[in-house]
């Protein structure tokens, strides 16, 4: 067992090689798939039953990931079919191959309702040019026109990373108990990173599949999306972190979507809460003068907006600003140039 500098401990010495599985609990297997983005991998989970398999998350829709799934199917399924595919949330590294897997196996897709319906809207939306309101959202943030032009050109590229979703699914709700083989998994809904993200908690084994809600070394992205510009996802995320401290034992094994499985969930939750509160405090102090979203970005992330980080950067900065507007610590004014500026109330 290795202990990290942040006080977490990591019980597994090895990570699965591409196409391989590591058993992390009875009938619970860890798979790692490559991602074609700066975050270079995602962890997926396979749950074995007497008569089939449940997959949790799917990887992005790339030829590499499909080939690795085919390799796993031909060597590790013990002649049993995939019966269901559970997707923790709508981001394409989790959802990308859900449609392909469900069609290939005739399996059932299981998601929360908001994640499923939002996915279908987004997959449809990225087939065409971005809505004018989406471009306006980034323009009001103070993003330069040259970056916006590139954003418009690249808008459809994301559609390469997701396969079409089936037109029906099975809804998962908070506290629902899923019997998967001999194990019972309780669905825990959390908010903030995405609107209705699910975690799966096996109380008898004291293991939780955490999706992106709790990652050992990086903080999940908390973003406002252009389709709900006044949302306050950071409030929801912090509330979910507090609630998880009450719902989980201190010694639960966390299976995160990125990084290594770890113990120390209460420490990690408190670290994330503290980190966000510090970021909010720094931001509030910086807004003693009116500041646009683009101007506050270096305070939060120590870098400038570019085409590669623009969507996440603006989304995350607005999430922080909206939090402080909701708590009445900041006020926002739209200038004659159409750019929103925030300052201390
Ligand atoms: Zn995510």
Summary of the model, kept short:
The chain has 345 residues and is of the alpha+beta class. Helices cover 35% and strands 22% of the residues.
Description of the molecule:
By secondary structure, this protein is an alpha+beta fold. It has a single domain, classed as 4-Layer Sandwich (Metallo-beta-lactamase, Chain A). Helices cover 35% and strands 22% of the residues. The chain is built from 10 helices and 17 strands. The chain has helices spanning 63-76, 92-95, 98-105, 113-125, 132-140, 145-154, 233-247, 265-286, 293-301, 310-326; strands spanning 2-3, 9-10, 22-25, 28-34, 41-48, 53-56, 82-86, 108-111, 170-171, 177-180, 183-190, 197-202, 207-211, 253-256, 291-292, 330-334, 340-344. The strands form 4 sheets. Strands 3-4-5-6-7-8-9 form a 7-stranded mixed beta sheet. Strands 10-11-12-13-14 form a 5-stranded mixed beta sheet. Helix 8 (265-286) crosses helix 10. The protein is globular and about 65 Å long. The model has no long low-confidence stretch (mean pLDDT 95). The structure holds zinc ion.
Secondary structure blueprint with pairings:
Blueprint: E1 2-3, E2 9-10, E3 22-25, E4 28-34, E5 41-48, E6 53-56, H1 63-76, E7 82-86, H2 92-95, H3 98-105, E8 108-111, H4 113-125, H5 132-140, H6 145-154, E9 170-171, E10 177-180, E11 183-190, E12 197-202, E13 207-211, H7 233-247, E14 253-256, H8 265-286, E15 291-292, H9 293-301, H10 310-326, E16 330-334, E17 340-344
This protein binds zinc ion.
């Amino acid at each position: 067992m290795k202990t990290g500098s942040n006080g977490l401990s990591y019980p597994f010495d090895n990570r699965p090689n591409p196409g391989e599985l590591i058993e992390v609990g009875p009938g619970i297997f860890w798979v790692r798939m490559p991602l074609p983005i700066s975050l270079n991998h995602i962890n997926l989970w396979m749950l074995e039953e007497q008569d089939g398999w449940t997959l949790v998350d799917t990887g992005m829709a790339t030829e590499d990931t499909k080939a690795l799934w085919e390799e796993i199917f031909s060597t590790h399924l013990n002649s049993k079919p995939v019966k269901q595919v559970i997707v923790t949330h709508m981001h394409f590294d989790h959802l990308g191959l859900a449609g392909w897997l469900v069609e290939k196996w005739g399996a059932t897709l299981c998601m929360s309702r908001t994640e499923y319906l939002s996915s279908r809207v987004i997959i449809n939306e990225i087939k065409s040019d971005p809505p004018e309101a989406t471009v306006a959202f980034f323009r009001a943030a103070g993003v330069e026109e040259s970056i916006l032009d590139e954003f418009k050109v690249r808008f459809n590229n994301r559609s390469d990373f997701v396969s079409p979703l089936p037109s029906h699914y099975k809804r998962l709700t908070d506290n629902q108990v899923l019997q998967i083989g001999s194990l019972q998994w309780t669905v825990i809904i959390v908010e903030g990173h995405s609107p209705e993200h699910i975690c799966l908690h096996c109380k008898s084994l004291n293991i939780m599949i955490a999706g992106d809600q709790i990652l050992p070394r990086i903080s999940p992205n908390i973003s406002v999306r252009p389709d709900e510009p006044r949302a306050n996802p950071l409030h929801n995320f912090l509330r979910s972190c507090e609630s998880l401290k009450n719902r989980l034992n201190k010694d639960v094994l966390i299976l995160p979507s990125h990084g290594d499985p770890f113990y120390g969930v209460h420490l990690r939750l408190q670290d994330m809460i503290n980190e966000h509160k510090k970021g909010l405090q720094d931001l509030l102090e910086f807004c003693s003068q009116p500041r646009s979203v683009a101007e506050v970005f270096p305070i939060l992330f120590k870098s400038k907006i570019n085409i590669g980080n623009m969507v996440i950067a603006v989304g995350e900065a607005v999430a922080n600003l909206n939090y402080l507007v909701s708590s009445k610590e900041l006020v926002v004014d739209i200038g004659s140039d159409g750019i929103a500026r925030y300052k201390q109330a």
